[in-house]
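Annotated sample (chain length 154).
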Amino acid sequence: MPEVIFPGPEGRLEGRFAPAPRPRAPVAMILHPHPSSGGTMNNRIVQELYKTFQRRGFATLRFNFRGVGKSQGTFDNGVGELSDAASALDWVQSFHPEASTTWIAGVSFGAWIGMQLLMRRPEIRGFISIAPPANMYDFTFLAPCPSSGIIIQG
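Output written by the structure step:
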């Protein structure tokens, strides 16, 4: 799990990246819960998602949104964090332009950001959305959802 630092819209972003074990391997990116609630890329669920995708042969990235850990910038109520996620996806895809497919996974706030990114990036073919905060954020932008995936809600 090598630490990586890559450029984001407001400065550098800190992450952990596991390269693909074979050519044309799929890509996965995992997004963490809300920073004001203590969410980081080191969240237990985020780490388990990361390990699961890695074991299944994906090139896998998890990273801290702006203002979290070593990532530069300040929290931007979702607008800037969506830009962070787009930059992170661009960065991982630059190493794997031949990827067969791309998945996004998010936990809580990260699920909301991930689903917004999914609607903007047609190469994202699958998603895992854990505890999306539908009571806090509007998810009507998902109608119709262009990808298949799973939503896990307690």
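Annotation: Strands lie at 3-8, 11-18, 27-31, 59-63, 102-107, 124-130, 148-152.
Annotation: The chain has a mean pLDDT of 96.
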